[in-house]
Amino acid sequence: MRYDIICIGMALVDSIIRGFDPEPVSASGYRAESGSLNAGGEAVNVSTAAAKLGMKTGILCALGADPAGEIVRSELKRNGVDTRLVLNGPCTPVTTMFVRADGTRRSVTNRAHCHNFHPEKEPARFTDAKALVLGSLFRAPFDDPEVIHAVLRSAKAAGETVIADTKLPNFRFLTLKDIGDSLPLIDTITPNEDEARYFTGKEEPEEMADVFLAFGVKRVIVKLGSRGCLMKDRKKALRLPAIPVVPADATGAGDNFIAGFVSEMLRGAPAEEALRFANACGAICTTAVGAGTALRDRAQVLALLSCL
Asked: What's the rounded Cα separation, in Å, for the pair 108 and 100?
């Protein structure tokens, strides 16, 4: 295999505003603690983190020939992600993120986020890896059942392990039933608690996981934020508490978590060990503003785990 991991999904720029003060200082002026531009999007965040963790990583996304696209390309290359699979798109989406003091956030998207490029038309771009990460189901390009199924079918035919993250729909709304024929092709799915609740209608994490398992997914990891995570398959369940850190920004924590889990599984770690490593990657990510800022390398993660 040419790659350890290929990530497919949205690439964008996050305009992160931290400590926004809603009290105006003039007729049209407001203040904030800080503002920054960061390469983002699920595919960018996962591929960048995986490359930092020592994986040979490629990304399949669409970027415009615009300043935002140049920010993303530069950040990917700086972190060792192979960008030869990147497609030319009409524009690069920009998301505005408002981050609270405790690290939680709210985001503003726009129509550029629903640009649906077509990875299924070029399977040679994503079938040369040990693992394929879809980031994320229910967002472009994976908001079309036919696109999802075609990509997953090609990935499994090539012998790839498939990991799929999820996002709440923003422009096109699908349910689990709408992609029911694709879910058995997924090895691990990784919704956060809000997403799992939305798609399953359940309140308890184990019940949420059971719904995904009933649809044929082989393993479910529900990310629970400050309450840690739950991993469940048809044989057993494991719940881990969150690793205590001082949070600055939760942007990309779930994506760093996924990168940690996949990279350790590819190294041959048992699922339980990979989950603990992933938990540490997610925790580290929250300690700085921006999805790709805090995590440096695998040694950093192992050092954190050794202190627990």
From this structure: 15
Which of 78, 16, 54, 49 has its CA nearest to residue 284? 49
Identify whether 27 is part of a domain: no
Instruction: Quote the CA–CA distance of 20 and 38 in Å, as a whole number.
Output: 17
For residues 50 and 259, the answer to whether their CB atoms sit within 8 Å is: yes
Task: Look up the domain containing 216 and give its range.
Answer: 3-21+32-306
- According to DSSP, residue 72 is labeled H
CA 138 distance to own-chain centroid: 12
As for how many domains the chain has, the answer is 1
- Tokens 């580290």 correspond to 284
Q: Which residues pair with 237 in a beta bridge?
A: 232
Considering the domain boundaries, does residue 254 fall inside one? yes
Count CB atoms within 10 A of the CB of residue 74. Answer: 12
pLDDT along the chain (308 residues), means of 10: 94 90 89 91 96 98 94 96 95 88 79 78 97 94 95 98 94 93 98 97 97 98 95 97 92 95 98 97 94 95 95
Is residue 107 a part of any domain in this protein? yes
Domain harbouring 143, CATH code: 3.40.1190.20
Q: Do residues 57 and 80 lie in contact, with contact meaning Cβ atoms separated by under 8 Å?
A: yes
Beta-carbon contacts of 120 under 8 Å, excluding residues fewer than 6 positions away, are 146, 147, 150, 151, 154
Query: Tokens in use for 59?
Result: 């990304």
Checking DSSP bridges between strand 237-240 and strand 229-232, what pairing results, if any? antiparallel
Give residue for tokens 């529900």. Answer: 222
Distance CA 108, CA 170 (A): 10
Residue 10 CA to residue 116 CA, distance in Å, equals 9
